[in-house]
Amino acid sequence: MTSFSFTVGETDTNRLDKYLSKAIQDFSRTQIQHAIREGNALVNGRVQKVSFVLSGGEDVELSINPTDNEADSVVPENIPLSILFEDDFIIVINKPAGLVVHPGAGHPNGTLANGLAFHYKNLSKINGGLRPGIVHRLDKETSGAMVVAKTDPVHQNLGKQFEDRSVEKEYIGIAWGKWEGTGTIEKAIKRSRKDRTKYEVQDSGRTAKTDYKVSVSNKVMSIVHFFPKTGRTHQIRVHSEFEGHPIVGDVKYSGGKNRAKGFTPETQKKIDTLFKLVHRHLLHAKKLVFLHPDSGEKVFFEAPIPDDMIKVMETVNQLNGKEFIN
């Protein structure tokens, strides 16, 4: 990640994206707009939108991925894809944990985008050649349902649905601790200044809202269904940590094995056994619901819970004998 800092001149009043496009010559305006939409642009310490109008005198910071400028298309790679649905307009994929969505820092290839470029010669180009058909993303270790657009008009239609927050999303996760009931977490999120790979709850961040429902809980862990209403980076993971119930296996957000400290030695031993099955954060994008971009009908897609999460659920049953699979 490369960072730039500027102080806006008194006569440099302009939209944020236009100002940065003139100030930074090594990246295209499209790449800069993408970085801004990712929440990587700060004006006087606050995250701002592409359309924010500068009045002069502001301090502006932008973080952008340098690998975004290294190529204009991905190299096709024969990466197997798990297809949940496909027609002439969309592809719905069940992304496995461990697969990065598109090339970026530390992941120049071996991504979902590389696999899509191999299996499909014509996908939407709205997000450029490095992200063919990619409408939205999942974190590397998050598994589950993703929709891919075959044409630019389809991409625009789906993109607007995501932007309007009309796409219904359900995730299922395994969280630490006895978390009960239903509720809403509405806390703004921004990139951490101390660790630029992390995000945190900050009042000066971007609005983020997550509804949740705990289906099963015991003294050690809980199964939680999450319904994010916004699509901020790491949103569910950050909100879960904020509530004191980080996602199991999520070392970045306090959900690693060290969380087992404080339990009885017997329980800790069982958790040690459990962590032999855990090689990622246990979060899965279970359902996607949106209006089909051609027919306009509401369509539902569901990705089955992966085996590693099922095995963990079965193991947790042994911690107190309570049925844990749902």
Topology:
Blueprint lengths: L1 E6 L8 H8 L5 H9 L3 E3 L2 E2 L11 E6 L18 E4 L3 E6 L16 H8 L23 E7 L2 H12 L4 E9 L5 E5 L2 E3 L7 E3 L7 E9 L3 E8 L6 H8 L22 H10 L8 E9 L6 E5 L4 H14 L6
How would you describe this protein?
There is one protein chain. By secondary structure, the protein is of the alpha+beta class. 21% of the residues lie in helices and 26% in strands. The chain is built from 7 helices and 15 strands. It has helices spanning 16-23, 29-37, 112-119, 152-163, 235-242, 265-274, 307-320; strands spanning 2-7, 41-43, 46-47, 59-64, 83-86, 90-95, 143-149, 168-176, 182-186, 189-191, 199-201, 209-217, 221-228, 283-291, 298-302. Strands 5, 6, 7, 8, 9, 12, 13, 14 and 15 form a 9-stranded mixed sheet that branches. A hairpin with a 3-residue loop joins strand 5 and strand 6. Helix 1 (16-23) packs across helix 2 (29-37) and helix 6 runs antiparallel to helix 7 (307-320).
For this entry, give a set of tags.
326 residues, alpha+beta, 9-stranded mixed sheet, 4-stranded antiparallel sheet, 15 strands, globular
Report the structural category: alpha+beta
Taking Cα atoms only, what radius of gyration do you get, to the nearest Å? 21 Å
Q: Which parts are unreliable, with pLDDT below 50 for 5 consecutive residues or more?
A: none
Using the alpha-carbon principal axes, give the shape.
globular
Please estimate the helix content: 10-25%
Mean pLDDT over all positions? 90
Order of helices and strands: EHHEEEEEHEHEEEEEEHHEEH
Q: Quick one: biggest sheet?
A: 9 strands, mixed
Total count of strands: 15
Q: Quickly count the helices.
A: 7
The fraction of residues in strands falls at 25-35%
State the end-to-end distance: 40 Å
